[in-house]
Design a protein that fits this description.
There is one protein chain. The chain folds into 2 domains: 118 residues, Arc Repressor Mutant, subunit A (Orthogonal Bundle), CATH 1.10.10.10; 149 residues, Endonuclease Chain A (Endonuclease, Chain A), CATH 3.30.870.10. A hairpin with a 6-residue loop joins strand 1 and strand 2. Helix content is 47%, strand content 17%. It is elongated, with a radius of gyration of 26 Å. It is an alpha+beta fold. One of its GO terms (molecular function) is DNA binding. InterPro entries: ArsR-like_HTH, FilR1_middle_dom, HVO_A0261-like_N, Tscrpt_reg_IclR_N, WH-like_DNA-bd_sf, WH_DNA-bd_sf. One of its GO terms (biological process) is regulation of DNA-templated transcription. Pfam families: FilR1_middle, HVO_A0261_N.
């Protein structure tokens, strides 16, 4: 049976008719060794002879010469027989920029995997919208990096609103400092989250709760993830099995992620009531 390409919208999509074998082989060549991108970077600003490139990159001489010859052969570098210098060609400049873009895209995709593994619901947006977002995750060397990042951005914003299933002590400290600036905060959390912080840090919590710029709201409908807005930009928080912040995703105010986050926040906000001691 023959697939109806028109029916499935596949007509005219590159690679669906004649796979660009030669182009794929070039991509494979460029990606096969980090040395090749390093060499393209090394001559991006100034042409150089092999000895200078060895000093710039630390690449062994035999490896250097072999890869230089291969890059020249494919048209990404040019070689001057007079000066002995290697220079970046127009094609080399294009593929260098494309490689850096591809590496950045792969890094973003890799950072999304652990976040999405810990985020308990699907985010119904196109993959490209998620790829444009920034993810900050925790690791063994810095387990509080997501919390510290949000606290820093929190301090740079003029207004904040959102919901949290749990309130990290660092968030409470951030709220205290933020409230003193006169900026506005609207926070929705379960009653148990407030009670926990009030028990651990009664004076600090009372200072936050009594601040005129802070509105604390209670809702039993807060899900097992966090949604926040810092001057319109959306922040989503994922938690680990111990209810510690595992990672956060930051998306721009005009993104599809922010639109989805807004619907989640409004749904929870409608169920909330003012916090009372």
């Amino acid at each position: 049976m023959t697939m109806d390409r028109d029916k499935y919208g596949l007509v005219g999509i590159p690679g669906m008719d004649d796979p660009p074998t030669a182009a794929l082989e070039r991509v494979e060549f460029l990606a096969a060794s980090p040395t090749r991108l390093r060499l393209l970077d090394a001559v991006a600003e100034d042409p150089a002879v092999p000895e200078t490139l060895t000093e710039r990159t630390g690449i062994p001489r035999s490896t250097l010469r072999r890869n230089l010859a291969a890059l020249v052969d494919r048209g990404y570098l040019s070689h001057s027989a007079t000066s002995g210098e290697y220079s970046l060609t127009v094609a080399g400049s294009v593929v260098r920029r494309a490689l850096h873009d591809a590496v950045a895209t792969v890094d973003r995709a890799d950072s999304l995997v652990p976040f999405l593994d810990h985020f308990p619901v699907d985010i119904p947006v196109e993959p490209a919208a998620l790829a444009e977002a920034e993810v900050v995750g925790s690791d063994e060397s810095d387990p509080f990096k997501p919390v510290a990042t949000i606290r820093e951005r929190f301090g740079d914003s003029t207004s904040a609103r959102g919901f949290l299933p749990v309130i990290n002590p660092l968030y409470l400290k951030g709220l205290r400092a933020y409230a003193d600036t006169g900026h506005t905060v609207e926070l929705v959390a379960p009653r148990a989250a407030y009670d926990s912080r009030a028990a651990d840090s009664p004076e600090e919590f009372r200072a936050v709760a009594s601040s005129p710029g802070v509105e604390l709201l209670v809702s039993a409908a807060v899900p097992a993830y966090a949604v926040g807005f810092l001057d319109g930009d959306a922040v989503l928080g994922a938690f680990d099995e111990h209810r510690r912040t595992h990672s956060v995703l930051h998306a721009g105010a005009d993104s599809a992620v922010a639109d989805w986050a807004e619907t989640q926040y409004e749904a929870v906000r409608e169920t909330a009531e003012p916090f009372e001691w």
